[in-house]
Design goal:
Elements lengths: L9 E6 L9 E6 L6 E3 L21 E4 L1 H16 L5 E9 L2 E9 L2 E3 L4 E3 L2 H10 L3 E8 L9 H13 L4 E5 L8 E6 L3 H8 L18 E3 L3 E4 L5 E4 L2
Parallel strand pairs: 4-6, 4-13, 6-14, 9-10
Antiparallel strand pairs: 1-2, 3-13, 5-6, 5-9, 7-8, 10-11, 11-12
Bound molecules: zinc ion (2 copies).
One zinc ion binds next to loops.
Amino acid sequence: MVQTDSKCQHITVHTVTQSSPCPILSCVAKAPKHARVSLIPVADSDKSTCNQPSASNVFQDVHISARLMEEFLELARENTEKDLETCGVLGAFLEKGIYYVTTLIIPKQESTSTTCEAIKEEEFFAIQNERSLFPVGWIHTHPSQSCFMSSIDLHTHYSYQAMVPEAFAIVMAPTDVSRSYGIFRLSDPGGMRVLKECEETGFHSHGEPADGSPIYEHCSNVYTNTNLRFEIFDLR
Ligand SMILES: [Zn+2]
Ligand SMILES: [Zn+2]
């Protein structure tokens, strides 16, 4: 999947009118010969969720295209301007111990200014299954809130991380001047245990994990890679 023979970076956007198998928009980024891979910097402005290495932190690295995040923000813009959240799910393939995020699916969804819920999940699971992709995470916007994980976000994320231990959540917060995006995961076992045992719904508060770890933390194993092709399926 890694493109190595193109000399310049470009994106091809195809608009497909038929809805079956449902790619409405597909976007492929080809990158320069010499790919640049960089670790996404961890902001140090948020000490409460700062990156704490934990004993169980033996994870596969994840590579994601920074351009994928930019494209997502662009596709979310119409909602963002109306103060509505937008969410998408990320699919990756695993090669030689590294997850490469190659697919962004924007499912049908219902959103408010502080929540976003995918509906017809079977549609995006079908795309992921068809391509044998791992559901390594999800991405959503906070159109007017700061960059953090709400209690509802944590519950949504728990399902991902229970499936794939490397799963991460990207929060894009264009109005947060201190941090426009963050890549988070639940601490394991601390945060995972709190969420597993929590039966509340809606916005609520969570207690501290018993081991003293923050309930969620910045991912330290997610890298941006300029040489990654990706596809976008907008199912809305
Ligand atoms: Zn959120
Ligand atoms: Zn809860």
